[in-house]
Amino acid sequence: MRKTLAALTIALLLAGCGGTVGGTAVQETTPTVDPSALDPGSYPTTARPPLGQAGTDEAGQLVEGRRMAGFVVGPWQVDPALTQIGASSAKVIQRRNEIVGVVWPAMLARLPALPIVAGFVSERTSTNPGDATLLRNAVLQYPFPQTATDAAEALAAGALNVVDHGGGPALTEPIRPVPIPGHPEATGALMKRLEGTAGVHELTVISARGRYVLIQVVQFATPERAADLAGRILDLQVPMIDTFVPTEPAPLATLPRDPSGLLVRTVPLKPGQGDSMSDADYDPAGAMQLEDNPIQAATAMQDAGVDTVAVSQTTVYQARDVEAAQRLAQALGDDIAVSAQPAAAVPGLPGSRCVRIEDASGLIAHHWCVATNERFTFKAVARELTNAHQQLAAQYLMLSR
User: Fold this and answer.
1) d(CA 90, CA 71)
2) pLDDT band at 331, cuts 50/70/90?
3) Burial environment of residue 302 by CB neighbours within 10 A (0 to 12, 13 to 18, 19 or more)
4) Which residue in 377, 378, 358 sits closest to 366, CA to CA?
5) Distance between CA 139 and CA 136 in Å, rounded?
6) Is-contact 111 154, C-beta < 8 A?
7) Distance of CA 344 to CAs 298, 323, 328, 354, 384, Å?
8) Strand, helix or coil at 63?
9) Which of these, 64, 262, 226, lies nearest to 134 by C-alpha position?
C-alpha cells in the first residue's frame, strides 16, 4: 500500500491523537442535516476571533515559509512516481541549524552564520516497487543576493569536501563533482555511502538564484538518473522562484496569519500540537505539498475551483460552489478508498465518507473522513474513528455559523 499518510501524517502531527465508502454519485444538492444530531465531542464549534498579524519576526518566518510552499517544485512534478512521503515531510525552515534537515550536517562546516529569512523543503520517495529513489527540493530565502551567493558557495564547498567529525555519511569512495544538465551555475556533489550494510548513491546540488539558495538532494540507483532529476527540478524551480514576491523590506511580524479568513473557521489544534505547516492557510499550489496524492489532488482541486485550503485540526477546502465541493469530496474519497477499508460514516452527517487505513504491518489503524457543507469540503484524520467523527461534526457546525 502507498504510505497513505501525507494527509494522515500531517493530520496526526496536527492532531496528535482523532459514509460508507461506496462509490456513490455526487449529489446535486447539499444533504439535509439536523445539527442537533451531530456530536462534536469536546471540539469547538464556533470560529475563533480574527488572528491578526504574526506579531513577531519568528512567527512571521513561519508565515513567509508557508507562502513559499507554492513556489517550491514538488518532486512529483518531475517524476509522477515520486509521491510517497518518506521519513521527512514538507516543512518550513526558519534557522541556519535547520538546514541539517536538507543536507548532511558535515556539509555546513564552511557555511558562515548567515541569517536566513525563511525556507521551505519538499521531499518524496518513489511508489514503484524496488525503486529507492528519493528527491528532496529546498529553497532558502536570504536577505540579499550577495548573502545567498556566499551561502551557496560555502554549502557547495562543504558538499564537495565533507569533513566528518562524527555522525556524518559513511563514505565508501571519494566525493566527486557532477555536472547538472542545462545548469552550469549549479554544483553537484556525488557521494557513495553506506546505509546499514547497503550502498547508497546520493547527489547534492547547490546553486544561487537572486536572494535564494536552491538545493536538491537525490538518492538513486544511477548517477545519470540523479543528475537528470536535479536538472529537471531546476528547469522548473528557477523560473518559479522568480515569480515569488518576498515580504521584506516590510517586517515579517506584519504578515497576516489568516489572510483568507478561512483558518479561524477551521477546527483548531490543541495547544502544543502541530508542526511548521500546521494552523495555516494555503493557496492551492502550496496545499499540494501536504497532499498524500498531490497529482490526483491537484486535478480535483482545479476542477472544484479551490482557491484556499486551511490546515489545522481539520483541513478545509474552499471550492467554487456547492456542487464543486461535493465533486471534490467524491474525488478525494475515491482516491484514498483504493488502499483503505470502509468505515462507518459520521452519525447525523449524510454524505460523509470514512475509511480505515492500516500501516504496512497491519497493526496500527487510522481513520480518514470527508464531508461537505455548502461550498466547503473538509476532512479529518485520527487514530480513533470516534475522534474523526467528532472533528467532522464540529467542522460542519463551525461552517454553519
Assistant:
1) 13
2) very high
3) exposed
4) 358
5) 10
6) yes
7) 27, 23, 20, 6, 12
8) helix
9) 226
Please say if the pLDDT value at position 181 is more than 50. yes
Residue 102's nearest CA partner among 217, 228, 232 is 217
pLDDT of res. 120: 98
Using CA atoms, how far apart are residues 271 and 105, in angstroms rounded to an integer?
Answer: 31
- The model's pTM is 0.89
CB distance 355 to 318 below 8 Å: no
Is residue 374 helix, strand or coil?
coil
Mean per-residue pLDDT, 106-130: 93
Question: How far is Cα 60 from Cα 326, in angstroms, rounded to an integer?
Answer: 35
By C-alpha distance, which of 261, 336, 351, 284 is closest to 7?
336
Q: Do residues 185 and 212 lie in contact, with contact meaning Cβ atoms separated by under 8 Å?
A: no
What average pLDDT does this structure show over 224-245? 95
- Nearest Cα neighbor of 218 from 128, 97, 103, 71 is 103
Asked if residue 27 lies in contact with residue 351, where contact means CB atoms within 8 angstroms, the answer is yes
Question: Per DSSP, what are the bridge partners of residue 140?
Answer: 119, 213
| CB contact at 8 A, 151 and 103 | no
Interatomic CA distance for residues 266 and 15, integer angstroms: 13
Does 18 have pLDDT greater than 50? no
Task: Report d(CA 62, CA 83) in Å as an integer.
Answer: 24
The DSSP code for 67 is H
| pLDDT, tens digit, 9 for 90 and up, residues 29-59 | 566 899 999 999 999 999 999 999 999 999 9
193 confidence band (pLDDT: 50, 70, 90): confident
Q: Which tens digits make up the pLDDT trace of 293-314?
A: 999 999 999 999 999 999 999 9
Buried b (16+ CB within 10 A) or exposed e, 321-333: ebbbbbbbbbbbb
Report the distance separating Cα 321 and Cα 96, nearest Å.
43
